[in-house]
Design a protein that fits this description.
- By secondary structure, this protein is mainly β.
- The protein has one domain.
- Helix content is about 5%, strand content about 40%.
- The strands form nine sheets. Strands 2, 34, 35, 36, 37 and 38 form a six-stranded antiparallel beta sheet that branches. Strands 18-19-22-23-28-27 form a six-stranded mixed beta sheet, with no helix packed on it.
- The two termini are about 40 Å apart.
Length: about 525
């Protein structure tokens, strides 16, 4: 743990592909590219950004071709990156660091410059219509060349979706339709659910898929001057669900953030007295389900695991934190000093929402959950001014301590059995480990590295013609902070959780957040 902080050092890019050292072996059918994105540059001259999430986005790629694996990495040439390199300060508002005046503008331009968030898209990487984009939580995303990792067009989702901020985790269902959750606040805080249908004209390959975006639903925030923070949402076959959780973004603080030198996180407010509200929307019509689902115990969520329907019930699996303390844990002045509190670890939870058509006919106090094998609860209660609602309580799944959940995407929006995740920086049960959890029984399998090895989010690659949900491999970027120890891509058998092999690199692998696997046919 004494070298933990070394993971949060600025890393150098390696633009051209370089060969890796292969140990062990893995199935010959694993052919394609593991592409990941995350923060990588925190230091500009004598200036250091405040938070891990502020780091300038860097992409890295392992290309697997038969028995050979190459590695390359490249910084996202965002406007934020380019201007920060010149000014040696962030010119746009970042997550935990406020913006500084742009030296390329004169004093009058600075005085009248409007509020603008960063395009430093370091959070996630997504594939829409066979095109690759990187995203953060602002309205700006960037198209990426999957072969070279070159930075392409900047897309303003504010123009195509009418939002000021957007989830960094858009989701695509089995029909090829992509959904995203955004918010707008110029006319009062509202949540916007946007639908992007698949292109009907296949001859328009390479065209901007976001041009087809249409607003499916608009939901007013429960607060007049705040909206609930969100990072992801759930998507089943017929429903979309998102949470109004007690971490609020104050829009008045946000609107004056440049004048007051505030970062995005400076606009957050934690209100644990507030309840967690599950907002359910029908995908076919955009209609908000009138039944209110409320959890009276506060919690904070970054990542949804999966959402699916079974026998008139909507199952919502997510990773919950008791509070948003995880955000404060990742300030650079703490982690670079090897500080990381073990308090408030994440816990996967299962909520079950009964899809009742007439709440008035439902008896009070009766248990409504009919899903076997879970202690999740849903009970109608009277309520007060807002009328009756269904009080839901989540059931713990597995041991606390893992996040970055992934599943076999063939089961996304459908019933499933296994989730994979990693302990990341947590020093608890899943320390230095990647795990597999049976969501029905809670049984857990673990591959654990040494105390100096920190594992990024696993990526599941299903085997061709797989007969079982967990038949495939996990690809994981691993940083080893020991002096002279190589970083590597780890390959694990997803059924047995046994190591198959590694691809070692002779330089630092960026500390990434999310990634995906592009099969060879998509290269």
């Amino acid at each position: 743990m004494d070298m933990f902080g070394k993971m949060f050092s600025t890393v150098e890019e390696r633009v051209e592909p370089h060969s890796t050292k292969i140990t062990g072996s893995w199935p010959s059918w694993v052919r394609g590219s593991l592409v990941r994105v995350g923060p990588g540059k925190y230091d500009f001259g004598d200036f250091t950004l405040n938070h891990w999430l502020d780091g300038m986005a860097i992409l890295h790629k392992f290309h697997i071709d038969g028995g050979k694996v190459t590695f390359r990495s490249k910084y996202l040439r965002s406007d934020a990156y380019k201007k920060a390199c010149v000014a040696e300060r962030p010119i746009y508002t970042e997550f935990g660091t406020h913006c500084y005046p742009d030296p390329c503008k004169n004093i009058f331009s600075r005085m009248f410059s409007h509020f603008e968030m960063t395009d430093n898209a370091s959070s996630n990487i997504v594939c829409v219509e066979d095109q690759l984009f990187v995203s953060s939580e602002t309205c700006y995303i960037r198209k990426i060349d999957p072969n070279t990792l070159d930075t392409k067009e900047k897309v303003d989702l504010g123009k195509v979706m009418g939002v000021n901020f957007a989830s960094s985790h858009p989701m695509t269902d089995s029909t090829g339709t992509t959904y995203n959750l955004g918010c707008s606040f110029l006319s009062g805080p509202k949540y916007n659910i946007v639908r992007v249908p698949p292109s009907k004209d296949t001859s328009l390959a390479g065209s901007d898929p976001w041009l087809n975006a249409r607003t499916l639903a608009t939901v007013s925030s429960s607060w007049k001057a705040c909206y609930s923070y969100y990072h992801s949402f759930g998507l089943s076959e017929n429903y979309l669900v998102f949470l109004e959780q007690p971490l609020l973004v104050n829009t008045l603080k946000l609107a004056t953030s440049q004048l007051k030198s505030r970062s995005l996180s400076d606009c957050f407010e934690w209100h644990p007295q507030e309840k967690v509200k599950f907002i359910v929307i029908r995908k076919s019509t955009g209609e908000v389900v009138k039944v209110k689902y409320v959890c009276e115990q506060p919690f904070f969520v970054f990542h949804h695991v999966n959402t699916f329907e079974v026998e008139g019930q909507l199952v919502v699996d997510l990773v919950a934190y008791p509070s948003p303390a995880i955000i404060d844990k990742l300030y650079l002045n703490k982690v670079r000093m090897n500080e990381y509190s073990t308090q408030d670890p994440p816990q996967m939870k299962r909520f079950v929402l009964p899809l009742v058509s007439d709440l008035q006919s439902v008896p009070e106090g009766e248990e409504l959950v009919r899903l076997p094998g879970t202690t999740a609860s849903a009970v109608k209660v009277k309520g007060s001014q807002g009328g009756p609602y269904i009080r839901v309580e989540g059931a713990d799944v597995g041991e606390p301590g893992f996040d970055m959940p992934v599943i076999n995407h063939n089961h996304s929006g459908r019933a499933y059995r296994y989730v994979f995740g990693t302990g990341a920086y947590d020093q608890g049960f899943y320390k230095n480990a990647v795990c597999k959890v049976d969501v029905e029984t809670g049984r857990t399998w673990i591959w654990r590295g040494t105390d100096s090895q920190y594992l990024a989010e696993p990526v599941f690659v299903p085997a061709p013609d797989a007969a079982a949900e967990d038949q495939g491999v996990l690809l994981i970027s691993v940083a080893d902070v020991r002096k002279g120890a190589p970083d590597f891509m780890l390959v694990i058998d997803a059924q047995t959780m046994e190591e198959l092999g590694r691809a070692e690199v002779d330089q630092r692998i960026p500390l990434s957040m999310h990634g995906l696997f592009l099969p060879e046919k998509q290269q």
